[in-house]
Write a structure and sequence with these properties.
single chain, mainly beta, 10 strands
Length: about 140
């Protein structure tokens, strides 16, 4: 830091291999999920291996298995990335997943959140996932 309270901008990184660690996973009871950490998702499994690209003002986290892509803004030492996907189950459901991370030493630490949109009502259902996420270089 150079005497101010704003975090220093992160250098550009393209396709850096990273390890994603999931903990404190909390999910709604009596639900199945289209996507989620580890094997929690019926269709999409967010695993432990990914690549991280930082090209301010944009960040991209791509999971190696499945190519699931989260994108969003990076500012200072924080990033917020989203992924929207469609899944079929008695109609087309849309899922919205978010990962919010802050740089902390040699890691990125933050949260994951999952919502699904009921096709009949077009509002988020009662099925949610929340987790703690730590991203480190491989």
């Amino acid at each position: 830091m150079t005497g101010n309270t704003n975090p220093e901008p992160l250098p550009a990184t393209v396709g850096a291999p990273v390890l994603v660690s999931w903990s404190d996973i909390r999910s709604s009871a009596s639900c199945f999920f289209f996507s989620g950490p580890r094997d929690l998702g019926r269709d999409d499994h967010l695993g432990a291996l990914a690549t991280l690209t930082l090209t301010p003002p944009t960040a991209e986290l791509v999971f190696v298995e499945g190519g699931y892509r989260f994108t969003g803004p990076v500012s200072g030492a924080a990033l917020s990335a989203l992924r929207d996907a469609s899944h079929e189950y008695s109609g087309t459901w849309t899922t919205r997943e978010s990962i919010a991370l802050s740089a902390s030493g040699d890691a990125w630490v933050g949260t994951y959140h999952y919502d699904e949109i009921d096709p009949a009502t077009r509002v988020p259902s009662s099925c949610h996932i929340d987790a703690t996420v730590v991203v480190t270089r491989r």
